[in-house]
Design goal:
With about 375 residues, the chain is of the alpha+beta class. The protein starts with a helix and ends with a strand. It contains eleven helices and 13 strands. The chain is globular and about 60 Å long. The strands form three sheets. A six-stranded mixed sheet has the order 5-4-6-3-1-13, sandwiched between helices. Strands 10-11-9-12 form a four-stranded antiparallel sheet. The structure holds adenosine-5'-diphosphate and magnesium ion. Magnesium ion binds next to helix 3.
Length: about 375
Amino acid sequence: MGVHEVREGFEALYGAAPEGVWAAPGRVNLIGEYTDFNEGFVMPLALPHTAVAAVSRRTDGVLRLHSADIEGPVVELHLDRLAPLTNTSWAAYPAGVVWALREAGHTSVTGADVHLASTVPTGAGLSSSAALEVVIALALNDLYELGLTRPELAKLSQHAENDFVGVPCGIMDQTASACCTDGHALHLDCRDLSIRQVPFDLASQGLSLLVVDTRVKHALGDGEYAERREGCEEGARLLGVPHLRDVAYEGLDAALARLSDERVRRYVRHVVSDDHRVERVIGLLDADDVRAIGPVLTEGHASLRDDLRISCPELDLVVTTANSAGALGSRMTGGGFGGSAIVLVEVPDADTVTKAVEEAFAAAGFTAPRVFPAVPSAGARRVS
Ligand code: ADP
Ligand code: MG
């Protein structure tokens, strides 16, 4: 659904034109997984798929929310009665952003009418939730002239998801949606939140990065994410460092030798080696050697599968099939247990690789995957 339809949908619902329309993208992470809460490095890029929201201000403390993608009437909430963890519907995401803004002292936000639609697949590990939060945060920032920066909007959106919705996500997804730029991957240091736009122009290199949505729904809330997070914190504690970011790659073997718990050892090895893989990918991109990142992606997958143990048969099948059909490299991306994988291919090989993956899924009796290119796209913006 495009900007025009969202604008018209708003008018049909609320009887007046919106003050503006904003868009915020979903993302895929190129490399650096489960590193964000360890204060390490990640490298996402924004997708062309966006959440689009038409928004107007209100002065009566009422928030009205409607999504074209969800059946049901307009959700009406009162700002002075927004309480964390009390709303389990989709409306908790946008309501959480308004709550987080007001918590941060932006009480000039006195209500809004919202109608939205999104092309970001939900629950596919592509951050439809962050797109939803960031589009609302940016719209309210513009309309109420709050003067917040992109990283600040990302932080508020994460606060909404962590503490209002109740999902313990890191800062990557919201930062990607708020801060990415066209033709770049975003190098984010999750310690000081400094960012660098790294040119990632696949098309001029004759390359394509495919996203393969396995259609297996991940559920980060089911305890696995929290278990990995707790295991990483345990590792940092046992090694006497604030976060696993502080374990140097050069000292990894020595650090592992000090850990007797096999599970914690695996988690530490994944996080420290994935931080190092982010550095390697940046080095290769800076040297304009894009093809060489393929094997680093595949190595990252092995680490997620064997050390962090967050893959699943569908994701593993994408990686083995794509690589044997001629891909330069591939890995699962996002939270794991389903969701999506990314595959780096030469453009002329894209169809062969896609077909091979589709056939392998059919032969295994899996639901047909959805495959599309991840063109590095712009972050959140006003569109009308
Ligand atoms: P992901 O962020 O990986 O897509 P999440 O489980 O974190 O998966 O977020 C998905 C949830 O976000 C949905 O269940 C829904 O509550 C909300 N959401 C995403 N897109 C929309 C939309 N277009 N309309 C309403 N709610 C949405
Ligand atoms: Mg999400």
